[in-house]
């Protein structure tokens, strides 16, 4: 295989590293911040299940990004992913939770404008609508869980030591589920732009397990997410785990479970097909922001408790990051494509 492919793929790997550094906090930031899990333990669990989710459930959401913009050359995919990664890195360095989904969508739109390709505004409106639906849905789920668990604990008279044991076990399971959902939903943000131009081939593993070409690509991307989790996620974890709102272990569990449920609902082809078969309302298969899901869950619980414990100035900074990230990624992608084509003589679109 041509070595140049892996050079082009490096921007996607950088984006995966940035996602791991940023979104790891959404999986276990609350658990680590409340001292219920050690960082290394949570990072290992998250990494394992991110890989499983990316490889086995990641293809659904990637199709939607392909419909938004068919980035059909490796050089174009390289710069699209790099523009999104740089935008995220700047925000992560400032300790601000950002949306990887918004960054890659902004970068794809920048590629569409530069290449003269028409942006499918029906797909774009579908994706943008999830930026509103995702935090609201997560907040509603978190409030329901909060009221239900609070009522249960009031009437169950569970001993504090046993309650602590159940909470720790629950946080481990929640982190595993949240990581699986993150890999399933957000691997499209990391590797989705490379699907159409990737030369990778599928292969079989011992035991009869077979990975197709897209799953191999997603496996490589998932490994880069894991590296980001282990190497650079500490700073943003403090934002979620300690600074956004002081949380008890029970609330930490609710936040992780709520965001995991929301990401899974937007990533599961099986769930969508099941609901459609019974003519029930279903959500589109769209890569959504785990950051928005976590913020929605925290705000939902905070408002249910009266809103006095929420760090509102920090919420304002995060929302500002959400608004500026896609614009920054689009502009950066557009300008960078010009230099890549005219200075380095690379074919960035066909």
What gap, in angstroms, lies between the N and C termini? 22 Å
Beta-strand level of the residues, as a percent range? under 5%
Q: What is the share of helical residues? A: over 70%
Task: Encode the helix/strand succession as letters.
Answer: HHHHHHHEEHHHHHH
Report on this structure.
A two-stranded antiparallel sheet has the order 1-2. It is globular and about 70 Å long. The protein has one domain. α1 runs parallel beside α4 and α6 crosses α12. It contains 13 helices and two strands. With 350 residues, the protein is mainly alpha-helical. A hairpin with a 3-residue loop joins β1 and β2.
Q: What is the compact description of this entry?
A:
The protein has 350 residues and is mainly α.
Key descriptive features of the protein:
mainly alpha, globular, 2 strands, 350 residues, two-stranded antiparallel ribbon
Fold blueprint:
Layout: H1 3-33, H2 39-57, H3 59-68, H4 74-93, H5 100-115, H6 121-156, H7 160-191, E1 203-205, E2 209-211, H8 213-232, H9 234-243, H10 249-265, H11 269-277, H12 290-304, H13 312-342
Antiparallel strand pairs: 1-2
């Amino acid at each position: 295989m041509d070595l140049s492919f892996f050079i082009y793929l490096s921007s996607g790997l950088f984006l995966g590293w940035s996602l791991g550094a940023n979104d790891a906090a959404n999986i276990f930031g609350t658990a680590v911040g409340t001292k219920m899990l050690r960082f290394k333990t949570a990072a290992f669990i998250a990494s394992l299940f991110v890989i499983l989710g990316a490889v086995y459930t990641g293809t659904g959401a990637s199709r939607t990004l392909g419909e938004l913009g068919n980035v059909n050359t490796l050089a174009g995919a390289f710069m699209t992913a790099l523009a999104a990664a740089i935008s995220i890195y700047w925000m992560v360095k400032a300790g601000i939770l950002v949306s990887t989904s918004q960054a890659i969508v902004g970068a794809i739109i920048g590629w569409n404008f530069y290449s003269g390709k028409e942006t499918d505004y029906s797909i774009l409106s579908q994706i943008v609508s999830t930026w509103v639906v995702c935090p609201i849905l997560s907040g509603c789920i978190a409030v329901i869980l909060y009221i239900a668990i609070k009522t249960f604990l009031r009437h169950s008279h569970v001993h504090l030591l046993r309650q602590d044991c159940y909470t720790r076990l629950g946080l481990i399971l929640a982190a595993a589920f949240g990581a699986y959902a993150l890999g399933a939903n957000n691997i499209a943000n990391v590797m989705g732009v490379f699907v159409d131009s990737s030369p990778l081939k599928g292969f079989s593993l011992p035991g009869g397990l077979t990975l197709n070409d897209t799953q191999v690509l997603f496996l490589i991307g998932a490994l880069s997410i894991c590296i980001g989790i282990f190497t650079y996620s500490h700073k943003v974890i403090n934002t979620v785990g300690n600074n956004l709102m002081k949380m008890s272990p029970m609330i930490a569990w609710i936040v992780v479970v709520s965001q995991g449920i929301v990401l899974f609902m937007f990533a599961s082809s099986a769930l969508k097909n099941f609901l459609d078969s019974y003519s029930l309302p279903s959500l589109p298969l769209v890569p959504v922001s785990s950051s928005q899901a976590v913020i929605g869950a925290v705000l939902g619980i905070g408002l249910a408790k009266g809103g006095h414990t929420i760090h509102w100035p920090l919420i304002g900074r995060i929302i500002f990051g959400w608004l500026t990230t896609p614009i920054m990624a689009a502009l950066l992608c557009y300008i960078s494509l010009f230099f890549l084509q005219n200075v380095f003589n690379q074919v960035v679109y066909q």
